[in-house]
Amino acid sequence: MKTIVLGAGIIGISTAWHLLERGHEVIVIDRQPDAALETSFANAAQISVSYCEPWANREAPLKALKWMFDKEAPLLFRPQMDWQQWRWGLQFLAQCNDTAFERNVQQIVALGAYSHAALKDLVGTTGIEYNRLERGIAHFYTDQKSFDAAGHAVELMRKHGVQRRLVSRHELLQIEPALRAYGVKITGGTYTSTDESGDARVFTQELARRCIARGAQFLYGHDVLRLNKIGNAIDSVAVMARQPGGGGKKDFILKADAVVVACGSYSAPLLRSVGVDLPIYPGKGYSATFPLLRPEGAPMVSTIDDGKKIAMSRLGNHLRVAGTIELNGWDLTLDSSLARARCHMLSRRIEAILPGVCDTRTPEEGGDPQYWTGLRPATPTNIPFIGRTRVGKLWVNAGHGTLGWTHGAGSGKALAELISGQVPAMNFGFCGMEQGNRTLTAKVA
Q1: Are 75 and 325 in contact (CB under 8 A)?
Q2: Would you give the end-to-end CA distance of the chain in angstroms?
């Protein structure tokens, strides 16, 4: 079976690998010159099964209103003349209740656990090295109210099989001594020893090279112009090289037995062009990667700062700091006043928590903070769309929001199983499937 995978981020490359494992002929298409150069490039680096709570909860609407005029807010809604944004927002509000929250948590945790197991198998098979640290994830709180509320989150996660637990400030500082300079401000935390961290870009690019070695064809530097539909099925994909030879720009057609759309936020407009309308909207996220000045003082445990909703992960001789979501359309600028404020917030926060550990100087001060922004493909539920669309031969693997790295290996494996006529071993609502108590049965096309 010949399959075209559109998108070479962690989702697309994982899908390609698992398709190859099942004997498929695979073509991967991406507009960038290498894998993982967009949303997968510089994320928070966490494999976080334990911290996967949906953005939509009963407190979210009030918080979003309060944060609307705060440039450093964890979740910033910037209204646009875009009805897709407003539709997404209304669907998000519909999820802001306890019933929907717990239902969404179950789905996200099920995919997270399945994906973590898939990642471990994949690393064992390939031997890929990517600054992996299996030290768990710690989440610290700086006010008593938030720490008290964390008990409910811990209880909910444990209900779904995640061994997240409450820890005192004293125990938290034993788990991660690097936080001692900030310890007086910490009220307590949670810790999950089974979570881990690592560089998603390095992993994805290495996995892509292994796909090539197994015979996959990669068309880097190619734009997807359109999906050609005949009747109710995809007939072909029209693509064009971004830097063609002397013959000038010319598109060409590729045909396959299946087409997988794994283009992150850009999946939604591409799918809508053939009548598949999914509520995926871009959430602009930021990160900074700082060189370490004092490696001995840097954390080895990946950490979440609840106060600013940012994550910190050690990547060799650097510290990756990432966070915030900005619902601001398709903007990817880093030089606006808003973008600068959010980037500088990351620098200031790290200097407050880990004083003198990283080189947090701005470029104007002689530093080299690697600021980055990417569009996280968000759904109102935070549950991605994985499976068959109502258009023949067309499959989707998109909408992973901030959890693309956490869910990447499992999402790729699950979709490859579905395309191969198998049923993934988890209770998850796949597109084009009917969900029973524990068994998922394919719909008749």
Answers
A1: yes
A2: 18
Give the type of residue at 50. Answer: S
| Residue spans of alpha helices (H) in 391-437 | 404-419
- Concatenating the DSSP letter of every residue in 62-121 gives HHHHHHTT-TT-SEEE---S-HHHHHHHHHHHHT-SHHHHHHHHHHHHHHHHHHHHHHHH
> How much of the chain exceeds pLDDT 90, in percent?
90
What is the Cα–Cα distance from 236 to 24, expressed in whole angstroms?
17
For residue 245, the model assigns a pLDDT of 59
Task: Please give the C-alpha separations between residue 206 and each of 122, 199, 296, 314, 388, in angstroms, as whole numbers.
Answer: 12, 11, 29, 19, 28
Residue 16 dihedral angles phi and psi, to the nearest 5°: -60, -45
Q: How many CB atoms lie within 10 A of CB 269?
A: 12
Gyration radius of the chain over CA positions? 21
Burial of 228: CB neighbours in 10 Å, binned 0-12, 13-18, 19+? middle
pLDDT in tens, 61-107: 999 999 988 999 999 998 889 999 999 999 999 999 999 999 999 99
Q: What angle do CA 10, 40, 266 make, to 5 degrees?
A: 85
User: How confident is the model at residue 52, as a pLDDT?
Assistant: 82
Q: How far apart are CA 198 and CA 211, in angstroms?
A: 20
Q: What is the largest CA-CA distance in the chain?
A: 68
Q: How far apart are CA 343 and CA 288, in angstroms?
A: 7
**Digit-coded pLDDT (tens) for 107-144:** 999 999 999 999 999 999 999 999 999 999 999 999 99
Query: Pairing relation of β-strands 258-261 and 394-398?
Result: parallel
Q: In DSSP terms, which residues pair with 5 in a beta bridge?
A: 28, 260
How many Cβ atoms from other residues are within 10 Å of residue 211's Cβ? 23
User: What is the C-alpha separation between 53 and 47, in angstroms, rounded?
Assistant: 14
- Give 304-330 pLDDT, tens digit per residue: 999 999 999 999 999 999 999 999 999
Quote the pLDDT of residue 60. 93
Opening angle at CA 285, ends 32 and 76, nearest 5? 140
Q: Which range is least confidently modeled, 1-15, 41-55, 258-272?
A: 41-55
Q: Taking the alpha carbons of 88, 91, 95, 97 in that order, is the dihedral positive or negative?
A: positive
